[in-house]
Amino acid sequence: MARSRAAYEYTEAEDKSMRLGFLLIAAGLLSLLGLGCCWLRPALQERGGGGSANCTVLAVRQLGERFACTFSCGAACRGTARYPCLQVLVRTSRSSAPALLHEDERQLRTNPKCSYIPPCARDDQENFENVTFKQKYWKEKVGSQPFTCYFNQHLRPDDVMLKRTHDETVLLHCFLWPVVTFLVGVLIVVLTICAKSLAVRAEAIKKKKH
């Protein structure tokens, strides 16, 4: 019995391999749990009840109200500037009621009143010019041409997005890499156990021959 136990004791290299395998298994499970609770679940909730539609611009306008944004000009240099609020009203193929267009879900959460948030510049005039350029783009370049937009009737029935922050590719990678980490860990553990078992059997056969 003592010889059998000694035969199945792992070497230092095998012990390190087993530890690495178990570490990868734990990392994969914790990643799936963390991403599922903190990121994947809210992303799926945002996508639930949503879909795509064809949008047509109804009106493009600047409101008199201005909003604050934070700019950075160095490691220890930060400040506040202001930008005008641009609203792009559209009609979707799913509803005749006008809806407010947003760049994506992040912009919608940051400022639900406006359709566009410019990169925050130190100079208010530069922010104004960026917003005016975007206004001309929607009026002159897009005009009455239909384009694809995205909506969610459950969460924001009066708003549509130009693009989704959480698309299928991001969700796939969110699920794929923790699973790959978990499977690699399982594979390392199984291969280490199998290699040790084969080595013990080979040693036993060798002793019987002698």
From TrEMBL:
Q: How does it sit in the membrane?
A: Multi-pass membrane protein
Give the UniProt record's GO annotations in the biological process aspect.
Answer: detection of calcium ion
Question: Which compartments is it annotated to reside in?
Answer: Membrane
Sample GO molecular function, one term: potassium channel regulator activity
Question: Mind listing the UniProt keywords for this protein, alphabetically?
Answer: Glycoprotein, Ion channel, Ion transport, Membrane, Transmembrane, Transmembrane helix, Transport
InterPro entries the record matches = K_chnl_Ca-activ_BK_bsu
Instruction: Report one GO cellular component.
Output: voltage-gated potassium channel complex
Residue spans crossing the bilayer? 20-42, 175-199
Record's signal peptide:
none
Protein name, please?
Answer: KCMB4 protein
Which source organism does the UniProt entry give?
Anthoscopus minutus
